[in-house]
Amino acid sequence: MAIATINPATGETVKTFETLKDGEIATKLDLAGQAFEQYRKTSFSQRSLWLQQAAVILEQEKVDFGKLITLEMGKPLKAAIAEAEKCATVCRYYAENAADFLADVPVNTDASHSFIRYQPLGAILAVMPWNFPFWQVFRFAAPALMAGNVGLLKHASNVPQCALAIEDIFTRAGFPHGVFQTLLIGASQVANLMADERVKAATLTGSEPAGISLAVASAKQIKKTVLELGGSDPFIVLESADLAAAAATATTARMLNNGQSCIAAKRFILAEAIADQFQKLLLEKFQALKIGDPLLPDTDLGPLATPGILQDLDQQVKTAVKSGGKIVIGGHPLGDIPGNFYPPTMIIDIPVDDPIAKEEFFGPVALLFRVADIDAAIKLANDIPFGLGASGWTNNKEESDRLIAEIDAGAVFINSMVKSDVRLPFGGIKRSGYGRELSIQGIHEFVNVKTVWIK
Ligand code: NAP
After folding, report:
1. 223 and 247 belong to one structural domain
2. What is the pLDDT of residues 114-167, one digit of tens each?
3. Of 193, 258, 372, 383, which is the most exposed, with the fewest CB atoms less than 10 Å away?
């Protein structure tokens, strides 16, 4: 894929970029190695000052960053600005807490003194997606840099200006030259990077094929990886739920980011007793959404990020219909205007055992299923290869306890949509990946957990 900014709302190619040549990549890897040798000796308080400054820049320039995000991947501007603000939050969180999270941990043994020490690994490669082009990078970089690692970013090929802007933020915040570098390279160059001894570990957020490819390349070199992959999160509504609140949240949970979020609610699993009523409420909400120019303040739904994503989604909807699914609203791309626009879509009656029912729909398409009781709801929720998040709606304590205990996922949210919070771990199980970001768990992913024994 060429590295370029192509406005998803118009199809216009705004700017193209040359990929780095092998010699240029080597120079950057050398610089990362040299920078690490000095940077690892800096204090937590010094790193914290730089990261706090990055937070200040993000807040001061959030409108400009928001416009860049919207230009490159099409999310509504208000959401793009909020994304830049959230990046400031994760910077401050690790700036304030990293020293505690990584402090020596004394352990009583028969040594005179024994303890655990956390030390940085070196250059960590981050392969990142376009859907939250700032947030995904900052939630990797803030803990990694606070731990004393240096960062190398291979961003998605459709968000090069975001990638360069992020490097610039770290530079202007005061981090030493080479501590965070953007590499404008294609996906095919990632395996070579993993084979390079100057790269010590990697994290990837993206699709399953990309995750598998990175994991295989890393396994050959015995290098640690964290994978944050796809999901098809269930949104379970049981009889005792507050249906109006559930339908309003369901709409946000499905449509956020133009429907392109890994933790979006994608499969709506409804108790038969309330299914008609919930479907009606959800339909009203979908009908009220305003689709259009993502730069306008009242737009709810912008374009999908690329023509390829639009085609894939269109194909999946067609397959769902062939399998017996019925369209309640939407169901076709908005072909009469330029840009990658797909309307809010609701599909019912897809047979639960059909393979299409288990796929991730990366766009504004809701799949609705009906179940007899909570047993059937949990069974259907778990009957997919993914295990990222789940949202359960009930006002019955026993039901809530069962959802928490029995749903196979990295997160269960009761009477709330699934969301990331810097204070809580984020990640999946099954084919949604492994490892965790955010919270204390996130900063412990890329460190050497060193045992120290003194006699
Ligand atoms: P993608 O194609 O996998 O791209 C993600 C990143 O991986 C890009 O930088 C891409 O580079 C790179 N890449 C692609 N193929 C690769 C390969 N074979 N080897 C190494 N790198 C490779 O993913 P996407 O379609 O843009 O993103 C959507 C997916 O990401 C969805 O499944 C979504 O659920 C998942 N996602 C997960 C999370 C999470 O936290 N779990 C968050 C957001 C998104 P190029 O752009 O150059 O191809």
Report:
1. no
2. 999 999 999 999 999 999 999 999 999 999 999 999 999 999 999 999 999 999
3. 372
Tens-place pLDDT, residues 231-280:
999 999 999 999 999 999 999 999 999 999 999 999 999 999 999 999 99
Question: In a mutational test of the pocket of ligand 1, which residue from 132, 207, 436 has the highest number of ligand atoms less than 8 Å from its CB?
Answer: 207
**442 alpha carbon – ligand 1 mean position (Å):** 20
User: Would you say the CB of residue 418 lies under 6 angstroms from ligand 1?
Assistant: no
For residues 116 and 252, membership in a common domain is answered with: no
Among 204, 211, 155, which Cα is nearest to 183's? 155
E runs forming strands in 99-177: 105-106, 113-120, 123-127, 150-154
Does residue 426 form part of some domain? no
- Output the CA 278–ligand 1 centroid distance in Å: 33
Q: Do residues 143 and 213 both lie within one domain?
A: yes
Q: Is residue 239 part of a domain?
A: yes
- Record the tokens describing residue 358, joined without a space: 């288990």
213 Cβ inside 6 Å of ligand 1: yes
Say how many domains are in the chain.
Answer: 2
| 296 and 440 fall within a common domain | no
273 assigned to some structural domain: yes
Q: What is the structure's pLDDT at 132?
A: 98
Residue 413 in this model has a pLDDT that exceeds 80: yes
Does the beta carbon of 437 lie inside 6 Å of ligand 1?
Answer: no
103 C-beta closer than 6 A to ligand 1: no
pLDDT of residue 7: 98
| Phi-psi label, residue 324: left if phi above 0, alpha if psi -120 to 50, beta otherwise | left
Condensed to tens digits (0 to 9), the pLDDT of residues 324-378 reads 999 999 999 997 789 999 999 999 999 999 999 999 999 999 999 999 999 999 9
Q: What is the CATH number of the domain that holds 176?
A: 3.40.605.10
8 in Cβ contact with 302 (< 8 Å): yes
Q: The CATH number of the domain where 390 resides is what?
A: 3.40.309.10
Identify the active-site residue in 83, 87, 262, 445: 262
Catalytic member of 228, 239, 360, 437: 228
- For residue 365, CA distances in Å to 39, 79, 220, 343 come to 46, 19, 38, 8
User: 27: domain range?
Assistant: 3-229+432-454
Query: Of the residues 17, 127, 418, which should be mutated to test ligand 1's pocket, given the most ligand atoms within 8 Å of the CB?
Result: 127
| Residue 168 and residue 136 share a domain | yes
Give the span between the Cα atoms of 348 and 355, in whole angstroms: 15
- The closest residue, in CA terms, to atom 2 on ligand 1 is 207
pLDDT of residue 258: 96
pTM of the predicted protein model: 0.97
